[in-house]
Amino acid sequence: MRRETVGLGDALVAAGVITHAQLQICIKAQEMLRRRGQEATLAALLVRHGFASHPAIEAVANQTGNAHHADASVEIPFDVCMEYQFMPLGVQGDTMRIAPRLPLSDNDRQSLLASVRGHGIPVTTLLEEPRNLADILAYLQHAASSASGLLASEIERFWTSPDDGELLQNVLNHLFADALEQRASDVHIKLSSDDAMCKVFYRIDGELTARHVMPEECMRRLVTQVKLRSGMDASERMRPQDGRMSVRYHRRDIDLRVSSASKDDGELIVIRILDQSRVVSLATMLAHHPDVLRYLTAIADVRGKHGGLVLVTGPTGMGKSTTLTGVIQAMPRDRYKVATVEDPVENRVPNVDHMSINEPAGYGFAEMLRALLRQDPDVIVVGEVRDKATAEIALRAVETGHMVLTTLHTRSVAESVVRLVSMLPDSYRDLGIFAIANNLKAVMNQMLIKKLCTCAGTIEAAADDPQHGPVLQALGVTAGRVRLSVARGCPACGYSGYRGRVLVPEAAFFSNSGTLRQEMRTSLVAPQGLGKLLTHAGVTYVSREASLRRLVGEGLCDLAQAAIALDATH
Questions:
Q1: What is the Cα–Cα distance from 506 to 566, expressed in whole angstroms?
Q2: Peptide bond preceding 425: is omega within 30 degrees of 0, i.e. cis?
Q3: Fold of 161-275
Q4: Contact 382, 405 (CB under 8 A)
Q5: Residue pLDDT, tens place only, 223-264
């Protein structure tokens, strides 16, 4: 329980507004509701039980500095507080007092008043009052956890009332809001004939976590509603379908990409959350890797049509598209035409022409690239090179002076170029190798690992320690003692010790040295491929080990995550 709430209760007892016994009854009721996933402030319960009036509570609250708890007899819904990012301070007559996280625009103020009136609270005036930012953020965090409790409560009611259409809409809307609050990148809905197997999962920091369970009848209705809202055929359960929808969250429209597929005993729905606010700049993304940032920033500074090829590689779900977005955000898009061909478009960037492939209509990557080349682009971003035709067209575009950025699924820098060469058609192989050798500017292979929460602790370890030594030595720490950060756990990270992910790059940047380019032409057809060139004087190479060593040294990741990253590439 928060200290301010206890302070308000004690103040009311001291003022003779309520008795100590009445306070204890309401505190116990508050605890019981919290265990059932519901929330009610102390003031609301005092009014509900008839122990005190709202004016009496507000008078004491104003005198003792607990004013923001005096609004409880007129409760502002948590989802409204979360959407407009404010802490409610009270409702007096037709006036609502709030402490916003950021100043509200006139449109936001009117929209907020309309939203509150829509919940049956007859307010016409809004007063914004300054409060400590830490208090506002603490309230919003509390509201977020309460919203999760509200969702759990609604799901329980949905179990017994699956025909309630309004409740179904509330469950779905609050499900998306909860997923966004939990920083989920995807929501997985699994419909099964077995009630116990009907679950909703969130993918958070790359891992799936089961969040909710529903009976088969409820889950089927939820799946149907998702299909309808995303433009799918709700009656089609066997054929895979794709759709899109959007939800409103914190005054922003969040795009959702929806995919359905059948399984032997039900259906699968996967919802990708495309939240543009999660797209970070190149500087933020690579803040802990200054060498990589410097070279990629220089590449993004396009100056004329001189050609160039940039490969961003790695396994699925490792942020390759986000990195490409960061690079094109850093480009002078007001002077050069930047266009993308993607499947589908995920992150939209101002002053960039985004194009989606449409394979059922006969427009795959190769066809869209051919069409795009007639649109006079300067920079072309190809979502992924999947086939020989796309590889050839992309490299021919490089030969004609276009900057081309694309992705591949590989595990290392050296493997990336070998993979691209292997995709070249026989008729274009020699010319393609020549194009790569002459125009390759950078290859970055990347992965994401879990980032330590701020609650992390520290230990000391020796390089020859049996427990920590093998990983330390793999990172190049061969002697002495080092201070290491270790996962602990707190409410903010769900007691996992980790919160968010951090980028681990392996990167190679190639100069325009004539001798380097000549050696590249011969190396690309050799069994070792590009690997032996990474130590060449004309190549700036940042190893995976060096990146991990920096992250471990800065306390951003622990040795357990470093070991996972090393195992993935060896």
A1: 11
A2: no
A3: Beta-Lactamase (3.30.450)
A4: yes
A5: 999 999 999 999 999 999 999 999 988 778 899 999 999 998
